[in-house]
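Thread amino acids onto this structure.
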């Protein structure tokens, strides 16, 4: 299913779709996609972090370092099959490194491994909200929490290079060039003070592609964005699907 033009609907309508997409992503991850010992929960809190989907590891009494994932545990090894995206970025060695940090290690005794964030119009409607989102991403990456950001909302005055551009500014002084004809961004971050970033750029009408969701720096699973997006879209009211598909004009006022 191609990506729709979400500027045709109001923020409340997008929020309803957003909520359904998060649910379908969580169901799919818990339906056998995640390796044994890992699970996903929607809209959980981790200190000041509030994520759309958290990927967690079941707790142990001592919480030792995360064990490496064996090939038969699930996931894909980066060395065997690098993520199939068109672009990869890493901040330069001279990138800024002095950052505020917030330690986020456990939620109700469980360890946060990765976050999935779907950007909403409310994240972009003022400078403070863009900064808040970028702060959250920065803190997570410095704390070793991997991240996927799904930004299907076009750049605005407060994020002229998209939300990934706002996050990139926290790690490197070099400007981030957003393709003019593909202003929507899918970004997967391997956590660390110099995160590796796997990028795909889209336009309205582009198909969604799988993105790597890292469980550790060496292994990832492919996040099924298109089927979960489609499932969420099918549950929307027909009126709003007609608006998004251009078969009905957006309401005025």
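Threaded sequence (253 positions):
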């Amino acid at each position: 299913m191609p990506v729709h033009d979400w500027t045709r609907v109001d923020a409340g309508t997008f929020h309803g779709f957003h909520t359904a997409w998060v649910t379908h992503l969580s169901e799919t991850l818990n339906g056998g996609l995640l390796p044994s010992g890992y699970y996903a929960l929607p809209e959980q809190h981790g200190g000041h972090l509030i994520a759309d989907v958290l990927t967690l590891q079941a707790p142990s009494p001592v919480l030792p370092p995360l064990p490496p994932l064996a090939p038969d545990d699930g996931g894909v090894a980066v060395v065997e099959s690098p993520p199939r995206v068109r672009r990869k970025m890493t901040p330069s060695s001279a990138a800024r490194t002095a950052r505020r940090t917030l330690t986020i290690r456990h939620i109700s005794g469980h360890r946060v491994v990765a976050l999935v964030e779907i950007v909403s119009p409310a994240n972009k409607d003022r400078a403070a909200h863009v900064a808040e989102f970028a702060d959250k991403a920065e803190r997570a990456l410095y704390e070793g929490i991997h991240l996927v950001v799904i930004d299907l909302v076009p750049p605005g005055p407060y994020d002229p290079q998209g939300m990934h551009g706002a996050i990139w500014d926290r790690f490197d002084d070099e400007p981030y060039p957003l393709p003019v004809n593909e202003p929507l961004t899918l970004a997967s971050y391997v956590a660390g003070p110099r995160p590796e970033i796997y990028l795909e750029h889209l336009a309205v009408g582009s198909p969604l592609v799988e993105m790597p969701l890292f469980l550790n720096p060496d292994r990832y699973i492919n996040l099924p964005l298109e089927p979960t997006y489609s499932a969420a879209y099918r549950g929307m009211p027909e009126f709003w699907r007609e608006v998004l598909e251009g078969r009905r004009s957006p309401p005025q006022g």
